[in-house]
Fold this sequence. Notes:
By secondary structure, the protein is mainly beta. The protein folds into two domains: 3-98, RimM (Elongation Factor Tu (Ef-tu), domain 3, Beta Barrel), CATH 2.40.30; 109-173, Roll (SH3 type barrels), CATH 2.30.30. 13% of the residues lie in helices and 43% in strands. The chain contains three helices and twelve strands, in the order βββββαβαββββββα. Strand 8 and strand 9 form a beta hairpin. 22% of the residues are buried.
Amino acid sequence: MNQTNKILIGHVAKCHGLHGLFSIKLNTPIDLFQLFINTQIIYIENNINPMCIQSIQLNSKVFIKVKTKEITNRENAKDLLRKNIYIKIGDHPIIDEAFNKKNQLINYKMFDKTQGLIGEIVEINHNSPQPLFIVKRDDKSIPIPFVEEIIMEINENNNIINVDLPEGLIEICSE
């Protein structure tokens, strides 16, 4: 499976018990966590074979506890520690749609009400309590909070997002 047809959802962070249970730390927006309860197939990095989920439950605000058919003991689960976990695009249409919606602003140019052009959104980092736009400006990447309160207008025809950033935010974030 190549990189273009999968979505990174997190990494294996912990093993549980003797029977192969493990926790995945999700690096997705908190509002998407509930969607993962219905996930049935996952992929481990550098492995083209899918893993079939037998049980899955939300373990906390950022973790899901998983039991698969393929991992049956603690030693196998330990081999997965720190490995990235993916889902295949197309296997979970609801998750695909949610991710596409969250990432639709990538490649948009960001303009501030007072400072003008800030740069181009090159990434949206969902691996934090609050999602962040990663805006490329010159040779720097500037993290800017992805919150509705600062977004004034989204122009889909011209791929422009107009924002009203708090004074000094760009200077603080670009250091």
